[in-house]
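Lipoprotein
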Amino acid sequence: MKSTVLTFLIILLFSSCASFSDKMIKENKSALSENDLSKLEGKYELFPDLKYDEKGNATTIDSQESRARYNLNYFIKSEKSKFDYSQGYVVEVKLLDKNRFQFITQKDNQIIENIEVGGKLKNGLFYLDNKYLKRNGVPYLAGGYDNHKTRIGLSKDNGLLVNYAYDNSGAVLFMFWAGSSYNLGYHYKRIE
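Predicted structure tokens:
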């Protein structure tokens, strides 16, 4: 009996993790190797131009509100990053070493934000070390988990792919399950 309860608790703990959907970006990514990481270096628009649905189909983003909400820095930093949608914003991506990137946000050639993020290459994408996990209350007795993570890669047209996974799950007395989980996929146009 004791081992059954322990097994159940372990399964619950691991099932609450945010997981990526490969289907969303599989057809649009250009797989990277350790020798190719420098291909991610360049300047990109701060705001996305395309969104990928769960089947991997790309659609143009027309709404300025959606573009501004999902700016590149929103996914790079663990905290929410807000920018007013306007022209002139650029994010320069620099490879510092095989496990570290620098993201320099500029507007009209003035540096606004400088973020360094570590991570590692896995399955042709770079998994950022910006994972976020927060416990709320006592998970599954009267609470749950809130977590998210991001990976980046190169699209077939040389743009920047961002895949973001989010999970918010919990329960009350292991019976009343609640929460949501989703994946987002965005394309950021390369400028240089």
